[in-house]
Amino acid sequence: MECIDLRTGFMMLSFRSLKEVERAKNLCETKGIDVACALAFDEIKEEEAANYVKHVPHDGNDMYCNYSNQSVDCLCKTAKESLHTALQYVDAMNGYEGGFLLIYQKEEPFLKATVAAAAHA
After folding, report:
1. 3-state per-residue secondary structure call for 80-104
2. What is the model's pTM?
């Protein structure tokens, strides 16, 4: 099962059924992974989608990342359209059409360096 990094601090998985999404959501929560969204793509609203996809300012407009085609000429006008391109990308990698989304917060690295390490000779 493939996922996509939405480059906003969120990752997305695609599933064939709501039952599969619920199982994955429960697994994530038992592992301490914060699930932001678990529903059918058709149910997501524009305002909610805007929380997860990457905004791309272009020619004075607030556009959104096209995850299937990274060209500046193919930016998306709506967040939901952008999320749909991410869904299409994941479905192509998985080899099946999903339609049910699980969006979760990207995990923090286990080790964070707050001070640069000093080299010792």
Report:
1. HHHHHHHHHHHHHHHCCCCCEEEEE
2. 0.84
